[in-house]
UniProtKB/TrEMBL annotation:
Membrane topology: Multi-pass membrane protein
Main location: membrane
InterPro entries hit by this protein: GT87
Domain of life: Bacteria
Pfam families named among the record's database cross-references: GT87
Family from the record: Belongs to the glycosyltransferase 87 family.
Record protein name field: DUF2029 domain-containing protein
Organism of provenance: Microlunatus ginsengisoli
UniProt keywords, alphabetically: Cell membrane, Membrane, Transferase, Transmembrane, Transmembrane helix
Transmembrane parts of this sequence: 28-46, 53-75, 155-176, 197-216, 222-246, 258-280, 300-323, 335-363, 383-405
Compartments where located: Cell membrane
């Protein structure tokens, strides 16, 4: 294993240079894509050594990469400031869905850290209520309670990095003899930017999805439901996976997940009623999911048809996923449904796709990483529907071609040793 330590050192050095360079430049999108290119080249260079990496080495490299994210302020998003604010509001005994940050009722909670005098607040969308689900709100409040004043933001970023390390361990344990490939997630600079640097909730969602996969493969249906419920209570996106767990034998997973998700909303519903939806409806409209600014691969349709067509496709995908779940390994169905849903929605926020990257690694369906990568191109070119369509279109072509090649006459199912469940080896 001569190349792996060298590659890890180069990656850490590139990450340090990259985060400082991004912090110093307003137009940092190309720096982000440059880090991705360095990682891709290094991953190819050490591809033969990766399977030989031990768990300790994997954890060490993951931790080193994650620590580089703490060197600068959050670079690609200001979401973490809302996290801190929502936690502060709850600790003051106020339901986070009741008032937006700029409401006069909350003026006594504002401080110069989040509301610099004479400047716009650091909190994004300060004139609207929060969008985050109850599980996320509980997380914000707990982190605010456990950390000293002024340190909550750092604690959230450290927690996100720790979640990446935990997820990488789950991946490594799941992949067995191929455990080194867990570094596709753990040593990835783009993952670091979204987690330890940005502190995004999606790091915890990805960990919960990894737990879901681990439990589902081993038919621990109740525990799988707990993991799916936790993931959905942090971010609603994992609800995409519900159709896969509706069949006989898996109903306990969906029932448990549904109970956790709905149960989290009930206390807030009692206190604030319909305000419990927060800014979710407004967010969907603002982001163009009424048809005007999203669904890049459907941009050729008239505006008024895009949303209905997207919803029809989503329903069709759910039905197909339900049918496929009867005969296909669960992880394959999960990565397929998650990935195709992203091809329909074509979001420009790449941190939403962290669970997709985890599922792609677990299922060893590497072609779906192209969809995750497309989200970054869409993010960098967030004002160009044409660029977003090109990125997601290219990803769709990659998925189709590799899937077709895999189903060719030379591709037969292989049984591997090492005590790894079959669902994780194909």
């Amino acid at each position: 294993m001569r190349r792996l330590p060298v590659a890890a050192a180069i990656m850490v050095a590139a990450d340090v240079a990259g985060v400082y360079s991004m912090a110093a430049h307003v137009a940092w999108g190309w720096h982000l894509l440059g880090l991705a290119l360095v990682f891709a080249v290094l991953a190819w260079w050490v591809r033969r050594e990766l399977p030989l990496a031990g768990l300790g080495t994997i954890v060490l490299i993951t931790t080193a990469v994650q620590l580089t994210g703490l060197l600068t302020f959050p670079l690609t998003s200001d979401d973490i400031y809302r996290y801190v604010w929502d936690g502060r509001v709850q600790l003051a005994g106020i339901d986070p869905y009741r008032y937006p940050p700029l409401d006069p009722a909350l003026s006594w909670l504002r401080d110069p850290t989040l509301f610099p005098p004479g400047q716009r607040p650091l909190i994004n969308r300060p004139a609207v209520p929060t969008i985050y689900p109850p599980g996320a709100q509980a997380y914000f409040a707990i982190m605010g309670l456990l950390t000293p004043a002024g340190w909550t933001q750092t604690a959230l970023r450290v927690a996100a990095g720790a979640a990446v390390v935990g997820t990488t361990i789950v991946l490594a344990r799941s992949l067995g003899p191929q455990r080194g490939r867990a570094l596709i997630y753990g040593a990835n600079p783009l993952v670091m930017i979204e987690t330890t640097n940005g502190g995004h909730l999606d790091a915890l969602v990805a960990l919960a999805v990894a737990g879901l996969a681990w439990c589902a493969v081993r038919r621990r249906h109740w525990l799988a439901g707990v993991c799916l419920g936790l993931a959905a209570s942090l971010k609603l996106v994992p609800l995409l996976l519900f159709p896969i767990f509706l069949r006989r034998g898996r109903w306990r997973t969906s029932l448990t997940a549904f109970g956790i998700t709905i149960g989290g909303y009930l206390p807030h519903l009692v206190v604030v009623g319909s305000l419990v939806l927060g800014y979710l409806p407004g967010y969907l409209s603002e982001e163009g999911y009424g048809g005007s600014g999203r669904f890049a691969l459907l941009a050729w349709l008239p505006v008024q048809l895009r949303t209905p067509v997207a919803l029809a496709l989503a329903l069709l995908l759910a039905v197909i996923a339900f049918l496929r779940s009867a005969r296909e390994p669960v992880l394959r169905t999960c990565v397929w449904l998650y990935g195709t849903s992203f091809l329909i929605a074509t979001p420009v926020y790449p941190w939403y796709a962290l669970p997709l990257l985890v599922l792609a690694v677990l299922a060893r369906r590497w072609e779906w990483i192209a969809v995750w990568a497309a989200a970054y191109v869409a993010f960098v070119f967030d004002h160009s529907v044409a660029a977003q369509a090109a990125a997601y279109g290219a990803a769709a072509v990659v998925v189709v071609i590799i899937t077709a090649l895999r189903r060719g006459p030379s591709s037969s199912r292989k049984v591997q040793s090492g005590g790894v469940p079959a669902d994780l080896t194909v």
